[in-house]
Specification:
five-stranded mixed sheet; four-stranded parallel sheet
């Protein structure tokens, strides 16, 4: 039917336009936000009066919330389009749990909350799955627990092995808090889009969020062959839990270590001063990255586009290249490809690690960097 075909074409065109819009707007929002967060991170290490430090920490917290909102909107668009994909790679489950707790340690310290982690017997240390998505769900539950737990309260994370199959583990993570609790009639609204908890006892009604986090967490858990739920006693506290399915590590998985990872993560990578080439056309980003690298006394050359970068690469030897993707004259993809070609021409040249710097976060962006030759 011609009418149905045209409708399908219009729908496909609209979806493509939506994806392009989201990619562009997320990039334009992330770029200034990364500058703000980078500068605030540097300021937190400076010796400033306590009142100034509090202002800086507050701005840093709110900026992170804004960045998380952008991430949530992107994830929502991927879920709606059915394009939410998972990575599958070995990761240290224990380290991922600890890292999530470290990321919220500042807010925990500020509210004087007792935060603890319990990993029960039988939980595997290394598994195969999507560490970033696992951490995203856990951080969402942790953030909510800390938000609704009063000062000097308690938040406990418990990780346990729910089931072991022939090739998979079913992992369960519980987040217990001594917060304000939730009435049972509100349970069904928690995991719906834009569903927000409303309670007069919350210290700040504006801190309720936009109602995306739990809905996206539910979608992520389902994609990872798991589920999510809540048990709560009003006025006493809550227990949010989620399960995910991860694959068991095989001996072949442990032995398959890409050379590029070894090149970037060599044990001596950070042991001495490095000569680094920063390829970036945004002056704000240059100032942040250079300031951070200067703290470790690294020597930095700056190239404003890929063409200048390839010229500098032929003149000097670098330990590391930080490569922006979108630049005038020559972008980071073409510059990386040319640098890899130059390395092949010179058989004695070692492979220089190239780390992509980009605010793009849509499907295929990471793959495009890797395909160009970045690490």
């Amino acid at each position: 039917d011609i009418t149905e075909k045209k409708a399908a074409e219009r729908y496909q065109f609209a979806e493509q336009a939506k994806s392009r819009f989201l990619a562009a707007i997320s990039h334009e929002l992330r770029t200034p936000l990364n500058f703000i967060l980078g500068m605030l991170e540097l300021l937190q290490e400076a010796e400033l009066p306590s009142n100034a430090m509090k202002i800086i920490r507050d701005i840093f917290t709110v900026s992170n919330l804004l960045l998380n909102l952008i991430n949530d909107i992107l994830d929502l668009s991927k879920v709606e389009a059915g394009k939410l994909e998972l990575s599958s790679a070995p990761f240290d489950l224990y380290a991922t749990l600890k890292h999530a707790l470290e990321l919220v340690s500042f807010r925990v310290h500020e509210k004087q909350i007792d935060l603890s982690l319990q990993v029960l017997e039988g939980v595997p240390k290394v598994v195969i799955g999507d560490a970033n998505r696992f951490r995203q769900v856990l951080l969402n539950l942790l953030s909510n627990a800390i938000k609704f737990t009063p000062g000097k309260g308690k938040v406990t994370v418990i990780c346990k092995l729910q089931e072991e199959l022939e090739e998979k583990y079913q992992i369960c993570v519980e987040v217990h808090d001594t917060g304000i609790g939730i009435r049972k009639e509100h349970y069904s609204n928690l995991f719906t889009l834009f569903g927000k908890l409303k309670d007069d006892r919350a210290q700040n009604s504006n801190a309720m969020g936009c109602g995306l986090g739990l809905a996206i967490s539910k979608q992520l858990c389902e994609v990872m062959d798991g589920s999510i739920g809540v048990e709560s006693e009003y006025g006493v506290g809550s227990k949010f839990w989620f399960t995910i399915s991860v694959q068991k590590m095989r001996l072949s998985d442990a032995q398959e270590t890409p050379e590029m990872v070894a090149a970037v993560c060599d044990e001596n990578t950070y042991a001495r001063q490095k000569r680094i080439l920063l390829v970036e056309d945004n002056d704000f980003n240059v100032s942040v990255v250079c300031a951070m690298l200067a703290k470790h006394e690294h020597e930095v050359d700056v190239a404003g586009n890929g063409l200048i970068a390839t010229d500098l690469f032929q003149e000097r030897e670098y330990d590391l290249i930080l490569m922006d993707c979108e630049m005038p004259i020559m972008d980071g993809y073409e510059a990386t490809a040319q640098i890899r070609a130059l390395e092949k021409q010179n058989e004695s040249a070692r492979r220089t690690p190239i780390i992509g710097l980009t605010a793009f976060a849509m499907k295929g962006d990471r793959e495009e960097c890797l395909d160009a030759g970045m690490d």
